[in-house]
Amino acid sequence: MNAYLIKKVLNNNVIICTKAQEEYVLIAKGIGFNKKHGMVLQENQTIEKVYILDQKSQQDHYKTLMELANDTIIQAVIDAVNIITNSVMKVDNQKLVISLTDHIIFAYKRLKQNQLINNPFVVETKQLYSEEYRIAEKVIERLNHVLAVHFPEDEIGFIALHIASNTESLSMREMDLINKLINKSIFILENDLKHTIDKESVQYQRFIRHIQFLIKRLRNGESLQKTNAFEALLKQQYPQCFNIALKIMQLLQQELKVKVYEAEVIYLTLHVYHFMENH
């Protein structure tokens, strides 16, 4: 059976259908115009996007979101999803369309009410997820055009995190935690070294990538090989750098509630040393 049975018309651009006992969201410009419950839609009709919502909670949430939005907002969401899915990123369409729809609808409502949310991790996100950030810039540019608004750069960071969480095996919550831990690590560095870290520097990019992969290793229970002689040398030659690295390690251990292997301190000490030398 190459046809969809219409269950609900959410608006001119989005309808909920069933086919072979599965529930689908069909998206296309004008697809819901003059359509009603019970009508049949042929599969060969122009359909821009097809999403299967296989969990009832997803179906109910998406329907609620669609009812909160007008056609202009829905078209903006469609454009945003298209920009991402047409990029080189491999994304889970079902997961992305729900999270992005949710975010865009409420970000737009907040913007119209002048209730802007500050994103303290824009720089970190730009460094850690440069490709996702580049795509997010296109998404925000399109949203600004379609919705006739001007989203701040903070929103680019939020959209980039949505894309990144969709392509990586990390949830938004885990990514937020990584960003917070990077921020706290930088605070320790700046406080103890008594100077501001240049967040545009190559050294900063290397450091936050190191922290990101360190957190992943810790979560996976992976450990680096320890070199006692090198550790003793660093501790003797660069005691301040070693102590700062140790503070950061203790922070990670406390926040992540995992064991941090001593070998990690060695590699982190080298990063701290470069920050101190390049100032």
UniProtKB/TrEMBL annotation:
All residue ranges annotated as the PRD domain in the record: 68-173, 174-279
SUPFAM superfamilies: PTS-regulatory domain, PRD, SacY-like RNA-binding domain
Top-level lineage group: Bacteria
Bilayer-spanning residue ranges: none
Entry keyword annotation includes Repeat: yes
Keywords, ordered alphabetically: Repeat
InterPro entries: BglG_antiterminators, CAT_RNA-bd_dom, CAT_RNA-bd_dom_sf, PRD, PRD_sf, Transcrpt_antitermin_CS
GO molecular function: RNA binding
Biological process annotations from GO: positive regulation of DNA-templated transcription
Family: Belongs to the transcriptional antiterminator BglG family. GlcT subfamily.
Protein known as: Transcription antiterminator
Source organism (scientific name): Staphylococcus edaphicus
